[in-house]
Write a structure and sequence with these properties.
By secondary structure, the chain is mainly beta. It is built from one helix and 16 strands. Strands 9, 11, 12, 14, 15 and 16 form a six-stranded mixed β-sheet that branches. A four-stranded antiparallel β-sheet has the order 8-7-10-13, with no helix packed on it. The protein has a three-stranded antiparallel β-sheet with strand order 1-2-3, with no helix packed on it. β4 and β5 form a beta hairpin. The longest helix has 31 residues. The chain starts with a strand and ends with a helix.
Length: 214
């Protein structure tokens, strides 16, 4: 079963299941503006659509050539200090540069402005969220805690064909020095000295006072 839905901004084809295709001028429609009164199916199973700039027809049952999913290119991470890191290489980022902005790009052979993205920062996000092509500038994570992360990105074209997920290399935000094992170990090692020294100093002072002649 195929259902054609005429909209003011284009034509939508629904197969009665989960597949939805949106047609626009880029796919051969004569124009964007149309209404339900200007659509008819003829005896040869062709769907005719009248638009504000001409007449278009769609042969029902003949699938159009598919367009491959967008190609994804991961680029850089920019930190608070303006330092850039390559998303395709493992990175260790200082704890005080923990606000990260990610840059990547999806490339499609047709109408790149309609690309949508699903994004997840493993280690921080619980699930994927969706962004439009025009929102790519806003992929920013402020004040990330110390830990290991990985960016996962998927993209779909205007035919709802999704790409396979693309993964960045490991991104590690280092712990501050006072939380690192070597510092904690030294703190445990020397803390008795810091406690005992004032006590011993005070005891020695008292003993000297006791030894003064009257």
């Amino acid at each position: 079963m195929i259902i054609g839905l005429v909209r003011l901004t284009g034509l939508t084809r629904w197969d009665g299941g989960t597949t939805i295709y949106n047609y626009s001028v880029e796919d051969g429609l004569s124009g964007y503006e149309m209404n339900r009164s200007a659509a008819v199916i003829d005896s040869e199973n062709r769907f005719w659509i009248g638009t504000n700039t001409g007449l278009s027809s769609y042969a029902i049952g003949i699938e159009r050539r598919s367009i491959p999913a967008p190609k994804l290119f991961l680029s850089t991470i920019e930190t608070t200090a303006g330092t850039f890191y390559d998303l395709n290489k493992s990175n260790f980022i200082p704890y005080d540069e923990n606000t990260l902005q990610f840059t990547f790009r999806g490339v499609s052979f047709k109408n790149e402005s309609t690309i949508e993205y699903r994004i997840k920062l493993e280690g921080f996000d619980n699930d994927f969220y969706t962004l439009k092509q025009a929102q790519l500038y806003s992929i920013r994570y402020p004040n990330l805690p110390s830990g290991e992360y990985r960016l996962v990105v998927m993209a779909k074209n205007r035919l709802s064909v999704w790409s396979d997920p693309v993964y960045s290399a490991s991104i590690v935000i280092e712990k501050p020095f006072y939380l690192k094992l070597w510092f904690l170990f030294l703190s445990q090692l020397y803390s008795p000295l810091y406690i005992c020294w004032p006590i011993n100093f005070c005891s020695a002072t008292v003993n000297k006072q006791d030894l003064k002649p009257w």
